[in-house]
Amino acid sequence: MQLDNASLEQLREWESQLATQYQAILAQKLNLDLTRGKPSAEQLSLSDALDGILAGNYTAADGTDTRNYGGLDGLPEAKQLGANIMDVDAGNVLVGGNSSLTLMFQVMLAAYQFGLKDAASAWKHEGEVKFICPVPGYDRHYTVCEQLGIKMITVPMTSTGPDMDAVEALVKSDTSIKGMWCVPKYSNPTGVVYSDETVERIAKLGLLASANFRVFWDNAYSVHDLIDNAPKLANILEATRRHGTEDSVVQFASTSKITHAGSGVAFVAASAANLAGIKKFLNTCTIGPDKVNQIRHTRFLPSKEALTAHMTKHAALLNPRFEAVLSALSKAFDGTDLGAWEKPVGGYFVSFDTRRGCAKETVRLAAEAGVKLTPAGATYPYGKDPEDRNIRIAPSVPTVPEVIGAMEVFVTCVKLASVRNAITQQA
């Protein structure tokens, strides 16, 4: 099906056929949800051994009684777990509660209100504050910026990461830009892994940007490979050390999609100077994190080898779901002008771009047919996709047969929305 060269008569014929197919779907009264990238119940069950793993032994390797107060920056063995996940030195890791998003908000709040270096470095003293947001991207990042009144500036995502020519031009020309969001491996939602060159150029941003610039490096999917010999992400910490810009990047990760999503462990990796600023802020709002949960996780995942073996089990459950999505897209849209998509080999999402002006209608049609998708526009700041094209597909929670059924609905809705849009353009 090629719409650009189709006659109005042909478009109307296709619309009639697709409308009939859509009515048959409505009669099925489906109820399927592809909205959020949550682990399935099967994935969560992989970590049920956490329950009771301590067997009454609450003492950490350094003798800490994990039931008590204290330990603001985490247990040594929990820092090592974070280091294993993020491929950094344990000495650069701070361990928090269950949510890396909470840590991101806290670090951004600290940088904005109090300064990570000292009071004079607080962003609030510099007037309007702006952040670079590669798009499509992660809606929760945008919410953090909105909450603090930080203006978001978009740059396009490419197959190798953010458009670095655009990023570098922005930070050189605008001193109010104080940072950039990054999901560097299996980016949310495109699944792109940043190239070595992109990582190197991001590491150099601290040489180009204004004072107190920080890259928020949300490495949420660092170990979430779906294939053997998965693409490797260059080490941003090592790159910043080479360029003397170590203070310009703050990294985040968690076990939220590794163990139990609602009761995991979150991590920050940063320079000594940044960690000092973060700890100063945290010291005013906590007596210490949940160290019992930290030690549970370190005994469940005591080594890199154990972590890798555990994630292989996740991949075995996720792979058929991703294959169902990608197979449906390929079968329906290869050789057409109806859409474009990446083919991720890790992470939790598949990003699909419709023809211009068709995403919202596709999502609306799917919802009426009983398939819930992330709202169109959610992958852009302020919920506004200027071309109304991007849709994020999250296949992890439904069963494989449910994903297959949902994709049949999705394909029909994309086609119907596209044909109706083309008719409108010609009429």
From TrEMBL:
GO molecular function: L-aspartate:2-oxoglutarate aminotransferase activity
Matches recorded under InterPro entries: AspAT_Ic, PyrdxlP-dep_Trfase, PyrdxlP-dep_Trfase_major, PyrdxlP-dep_Trfase_small
Pfam family, one: Asp_aminotransf
Protein name: Aspartate transaminase
Organism ancestry: Bacteria, Pseudomonadati, Pseudomonadota, Gammaproteobacteria, Cellvibrionales
Gene that encodes it: aspC
